[in-house]
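quick one, 468 residues, struct below
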Amino acid sequence: MTTATQRAAATSANDTAGARLRCISCGAEYGLQEVVYHCVSCGDLLDVVYDYPAYEPESLKRQWLARRTSLLPIDQSGVWRYRELLPFLADEAAIVTFPEGNTPLLDAPRSARHAGVHHLQFKHLGFNPTGSFKDYGMTAGVSQAKALGMRAVACASTGNTSASLAAYAARAGLLAIVLIPEGQVSFGKLSQALDYGALTLQLRGDFDAAMALLLDIAPELGVYVVNSVNPFRLEGQKTVMVELLEQRGWRVPDRIIVPGGNLGNGSSYGKCLRELFDLGFIDRMPHLTLVQAHGAAPLYHTITGNDPETLVRVHARTLATAIKIGSPVSWRKAKRALEWTDGWVTEVSEQEIADAKAIIGRDGIGCEPASATTLAGLRRLIREGTDASVTPNEEVVAILTGNVLKDADYTVRYHTGELYEEFVTETRVISANGQVLPHFANAPVPVSATREDLTRVIGEHLTRSAEP
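---
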């Protein structure tokens, strides 16, 4: 529970004129100093909204670009460089930054051929300090926690959120508390939370159970929750769209494709695109496409079902653990983003994800499994025509959310033919079912330690690489 002292301090340090919280359903409004994640009146999610001044878009675009030459940490940040679009902090001293963002936009010709399109780029958010897109949002969420005078920040996580929260909390001098589903988080992500000093609690349950428990106990303990239910965190994540458009010289792509887990990312992108359009920074909206794993596709089943106003909750099952979520808290915001952008949602199989991930690797890029849903989803849309507006000539930007080293075990198992939808392992696989076929495998090649064998094997590969 927020104390009166904390509220008073927050009011003086964190009340930016015109910024407030607003319910996405009933329109009820709350002050920035309120520690609230859902509308008290109707229970729905909140947005941070602003009374923006009459910006001159071209002038502000030049200012944002010029800041890249500045030595100030907030100017070097790929989030706070665009601070005119998220003016909720009156005191810049509260900002906690590494800096984050400034992630590359990469051409991917092999991936484009795999999908069946002519123009494809990847915006790779895995180049962030902790290796995932979460850093864009965490700098904003943790900065708000600091401005509010909070002592501890917490999250439920399938991995990336916990890593990012732990790092930013350490930088801010706050206690980090992370709740993770036992045995369902890759070691690459778990190791980060442990190394950055977070109190790491392994729950015997799934992500959705951890999230519900955290929201229940957080007010009593005075802990600030920074999952995507937190509207300030999404304010940070929305700047990915500003950065992407700036990198393209403000040419709006036809389609932006995003992995769909807890759906905060797609939600924040939709909000930002709507704001940029309304403020005159862009003259049209790109189509937003969200892609979920077949075994964790609640939004897909909701949108394509009989009642798109009621979430179809599922027991999530997917090897793409970053999106292994059956009851996403941001589903209404994501649905709103699809409506604003005339977008769509689709699902892809484990086989499609694994193959797409391998193809992205062939472009020298690499990503965690959840990221590869974007390429898999694009390929499916082109081949099946699920969304009538998708054509091979579209200019497409696909979002890659995490670094390839986030789940290195998955990658090695795929390339060595030991990746299964369900498996039990010790030092080797001992029981398995439902193999994911390594259609594009690149397994290590056993070779004896002799000059003859080494020369032969390398020679064979040189010959094959020279073939058209």
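The CA atoms of residues 194 and 205 lie 20 Å apart.
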